[in-house]
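The protein record filed below.
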Amino acid sequence: MRHLRALCAISDAGSVHGAARWLGVSQPALTAQLNRIERAVGGPLFVRDRSGCRPTPLGRSVTARARPIIAEMSTLVSEAREEARALESGPRLRLGSTANRAVAGWLCRLRGRFPDTDVSIRVDPSPNSLLRMVADGQLDVAFVHEVTGCPLRVPDGVGQRTLLWREPQFVALPAAHPAAAGEEVALADLCGHPWVVDPHVDGEWHGIRRMFASAGLELRVIQGDYLTGADLVRAGVAVTPCQPTSTPRPGMAIRPLRGDPLTVRLLLAARAASTTDGEFHAVYTALEDAYREAARSTETYLRWLHRNDDPLLLT
């Protein structure tokens, strides 16, 4: 790693003299180090003249490959130091989640349940990214959703427990839309507006496309984040899928889709070895309570639950 840093420093400085100053070594020592590196790789890496040093084609190739290695090593050292400091400071619980109204209640419950534990959370739109972070040891648990028909890529060694097998996805539409007057909305009534879909949410685009194909309808899409999507809905120019626990903003209505053609499974993931211990059970129970609270506080979702006699949330 020291040799790679030296080569990149010489390339950036344009001279051995300048690189030696950056690295805090003498110029003769750096020149000797460069000679050893060139002997090891079997060819000259720099053309040296009175104006300084210019990388040879081999030098450009080596330094180009060296830079990401140096960056990865710097990240590894930084994260390792952070982890070491965290271990010294006491127990911690690292949560991950896709966006969900239950997250705030979940976090508050866990901080109350584990007052001596540093409870942190990372929110990411990609369930697959969060699952990889669990597998890599960067997160302890992750609350994610899986669009029906679009299985998540669960890494080896990651276990899961289902919170809800079938959560319906609702739709946010302009409050002035004629379909907003009803208790639920038919998909065909929304074909006049494009759908805002976030491409970073794993499975979302495929699930919506499959939903329209099954109905024999044409799908028009605007790719973007859901914060912008909400503004487009309020402006009356788009509709967007949303979670049933979502609350409408002014100028917006949220309704179930007739027949629930778009659903997801909600699950909590952790390293497989930890999914049977007491802490995981406590984390899961806190999430279950937080989700139930979010569902019961959302009038549209609560009416849907009563109509469907959902046993998890109504008992």
